[in-house]
Write a structure and sequence with these properties.
The chain is α+β, with helices and mostly antiparallel strands. It has two domains: about 40 residues; about 80 residues, ACT-like. Chain A, domain 2 (Alpha-Beta Plaits), CATH 3.30.70.1150. The chain has five helices and four strands. A four-stranded antiparallel beta sheet has the order 2-3-1-4. The protein binds nickel (II) ion.
């Protein structure tokens, strides 16, 4: 366990109120716990981005209008081109026009990012976001902390 250091933070009152409200909503024990989690997430984010050859796993979430030209076909074609990186898909018909799609992606960091950029950048895709994580062993190896970045909640326990 590394040494714990205390430090002071100057912050606008309103910003802190917003933070406290968020912490309560998310169920953090205190500000320190929430701040540690935020910092770990930011460090991992940068670390993952800086390693193009890292093995990553993630989700790509997209919202699009399937009536938009041949968008549905183009997205399916793109996904089939990368069938070895897209390991699962979930499609939800939000309403008569809109579709929500969640893809589980796995592979080299740079390849996953490229596939994600291509899909999100396809004309007609309204929203898209990629969230990636490395395996816990890699995260633990590079940064000394007690809990995996990929888990923002306690591990479920089996009785
Ligand atoms: Ni649909």
């Amino acid at each position: 366990m590394s040494k714990i250091v205390r430090f002071g933070v100057s912050i606008e009152e309103e910003l802190l109120e917003g933070f406290d409200a968020l912490i309560e909503k998310k169920g953090y024990a205190n500000r320190s716990e929430a701040l540690r989690n935020l910092i770990r997430g930011m460090l991992l984010d940068v670390e993952v981005r800086e390693q193009p050859d890292a093995e990553v796993v993630g989700t790509l979430t997209m919202v699009y209008d399937h009536d938009h030209g041949d968008l549905s076909n183009r997205l399916v074609d793109l996904q089939h081109q990368h069938h070895d990186r897209i390991i699962s898909t979930l499609h939800v018909h939000i309403d008569e026009h809109s579709c929500l799609e969640v893809l589980i992606v796995r592979g080299r960091n740079d390849e996953v990012q490229q596939i994600s950029d291509a899909l999100i950048g396809t004309r007609g895709v309204q929203q898209g976001k990629l969230i990636i994580s490395t395996s816990e062993s890699l995260a633990h190896h590079h940064l000394d902390h007690g809990h995996g970045f990929s888990h923002e909640h306690p591990h479920p326990t089996r009785d």
